[in-house]
Amino acid sequence: MTIAPDLPATDARIGTDCGCPEMRGLSRRGVLQGAGLAGLTYAVGSTVVSMSPAAAAGTASSMGTNTIVVLSLRGAADGLSLVVPHADPAYYASRPTIAIPKASLLAADSAFGLHPNLAPLLPLWNAGKLAAVHATGLAVANRSHFSAMEELEDADPGSKLRVGWLNRLLGTDDQTSPLQGLAVGDITTQFYGPQPVMSFSSLEEAEIAGDDKWDPTHQRVRSLHKAWDASKSPMAAAFRSTMAAVDGLAPAKAQADTSAAFPDTDLGRALASVSRTVRGKVGVGVVTVDQGDWDMHTDLGTLTRGRMIDNVTDLAGSIAAFFADLGPLADSVTLVTISEFGRRVVENSNAGLDHGWGNVMFLAGAGVKGGTYYGTWPGLKNSLDADLTVTTDYRSVLAEIVRTRTSASLATVFPGFTPTPIGAMRSS
């Protein structure tokens, strides 16, 4: 039995101020809303597990003890503000009010520099554990948020199968844990498919509905066991997997709650839950987290005000707190950022940026050859419809992480694709 609903017509991952007709009227919360998922679904409280009819089981894992965290910047972040091409004169000519002065940039080399509000990430950069790959994205421009998200997360152009690249990565495992794939917030397209995936809004809320202080003798859970334990139906299998996943989170919940050390934002709270789960050593191999509201058609702002500085401050503070909180386990966690597309080169009349093409991706943590900028710079044009041209297919970045941090087959995870070597990751 398979349920594969389309993405909802309204998607709570993107903000209300984007100016896009397809995005109007949506919540700005960013990461803690529900979404459709593929596979048989069993929902208990805020916990959701998607189950295939025959979930994998075994003793081997292509992930080993490594964890990959995919942080999606929903709404199409402006990579030219995050990593500024200060040596390209078209950048300053095309952005008379929102360009970031060269003198304010961090970690500047002869071509690029970081947005100054990324300062919390400088220790990672200087330690060689943070890198940026510029001019990345889809091979062909796609300026529709939902269509681009799905194309990006399927990572299998031309396929009629609705299976995300992370679900295919999980499919290379004989999984030892129902927590191998974890979405903190929405289960998005990259996890769609037959492999089981768990989702929760926060670690504390990952529980069986009704199994709380109002039912101290656990009668509700006993009733569920009575109804499903002896059944061979797919729903019974989903229930058992859900119970195993919730029970399996006990070591994570036993870890110290350090959320006060993170920004008090959706992203900060989500990464606090991820860190606590990883510290619990419960078998998580792949995690997805969203940060929404990057669709800045208006009021992108300057270095003293506007929407960009708020998002960049949240992004940098949350990632820095995450790696600090992991302690020694930071050596087993690799984080990558991704966004569905970038923004136009030229600012619009509302001091914002319209939908573009190329973008930047950050890599942080284990295996990263950091402290430098990667990619092939195509140059910018100061013309109305100019884009940052994509010179590195985003799949090449993801493939390098998969190749160096897992034993999975790239041909399975990215069918029909031959990656271009980037050199941003060390082999395990």
TrEMBL record:
Protein name: DUF1501 domain-containing protein
InterPro entries: DUF1501, TAT_signal
One Pfam family recorded for the sequence: DUF1501
Domain of life: Bacteria
Organism of derivation: Nocardioides fonticola
